[in-house]
Amino acid sequence: MGKDTMAEERKLSWDHSDIERVCGFQSRKFTGVNYVFTCIIGAALSALFYAALLPFRGRGIQLIDMFFHGGAEHRSTIPYYTVFLTGWALAIVFVKWKKLQVQRRALEVKILPDDPNFVLSPRTAREILDRMYEKVDSPRRFVLFDRIERALSNLKNLGNISAVAECLNNQAANDDNYLASSYTVLKGFIWAIPVLGFIGTVIGLSTAVGGFGTVVAQGADIEQLKSSLGGVTGGLAVAFETTLIALVAALFVQLVMTFVQNKEELFLDDCADYCHRNLIAKMKNVNLIEPEA
């Protein structure tokens, strides 16, 4: 069989499908993400966000001005960091979603014969593995094919349904743990974004209250105190803008992350169902160790 024919038969290629590999970055396992790659995307998203707001800056629109520092209200630079972390978090979710789409394509690849009487055994397992390598580049990069390869490669030594099923269950648990751990940094961002907002609020409060304290210390009269107190209340409103931005951003990221995480959990369930229907169900309820030919 020529190289051109082999290329046509390949149904799934990690290097040509994974978004990180296509963009020239080192790819993480399964739906894990490259944080350098997502950081660059996050920075680009932040830049686009501010580029869209910049023409409207200084026109008295509070919802726009609150994202920029300085001005008559002496706003802090905290919103810049909040927007950047939000963009980075959204980039992580986006890349995970794209990688999950590639992982799901593995469920559409047929590696077992259509024969309803097909029985999975150590001998036929080798045929299935050969067929899988013909149709998939780098099977270990895919959650489903990684499970199948581990189970079939050890089938000769395991020898019975319960042992193979235990192998698949253990690998499924490992995959669950790995994919859950891939959200650790993202959850850290969701925690950090509101904290940044609170820091911005504390900075604004300290500035507003500090200015009022200076006026009081100077022995100002009632009119000056009233004027200064008005400035304090206005400063409080500005101070809480950073918290508002951060809470809305964290809520949005949380909702998007929950959606993608639920999709990953459904995918893992589909992988477990695939292995049961196409591996366990194809094995006879007897010892499967076969003598070498």
Characteristics of this structure?
293 residues, mainly alpha, two-stranded parallel ribbon, 70% helix, disordered N terminus, disordered C terminus
β-strand amount: under 5%
Mean pLDDT over all positions: 83
Kindly report the oligomeric state of this protein: single chain
Shape: elongated
Indicate the low-confidence ranges by residue numbers. 1-9, 286-293
String of helices and strands: HEHHHHHHEHHHHH
Largest beta sheet: what is the strand line-up?
Answer: 1-2
Profile the largest sheet: 2 strands, parallel
Structural class estimated from helices and strands: mainly alpha
Strand elements, count = 2
* Helical amount: over 70%
Radius of gyration, rounded?
A: 29 Å
Q: Total number of helical segments?
A: 12
Distance between the ends: 26 Å
Give the structure's gist in a few sentences.
The chain is mostly helical.
What does this structure look like?
It is a single chain. By secondary structure, this protein is mostly helical. The protein is 70% helix and 1% strand. The chain contains twelve helices and two strands; from the N terminus they run αβααααααβααααα. It has a two-stranded parallel ribbon with strand order 1-2. The longest helix is centred in the last third of the chain and has 57 residues. The radius of gyration is 29 Å and the shape is elongated. The N terminus and C terminus are likely disordered.
Please describe the topology of this protein.
Blueprint: H1 3-9, E1 12-13, H2 14-17, H3 19-22, H4 35-53, H5 62-65, H6 78-104, H7 122-135, E2 136-137, H8 143-153, H9 155-158, H10 161-181, H11 184-217, H12 222-278
Helix pairs in contact: 4-6, 6-11, 6-12, 7-8, 8-10, 8-12, 10-12, 11-12
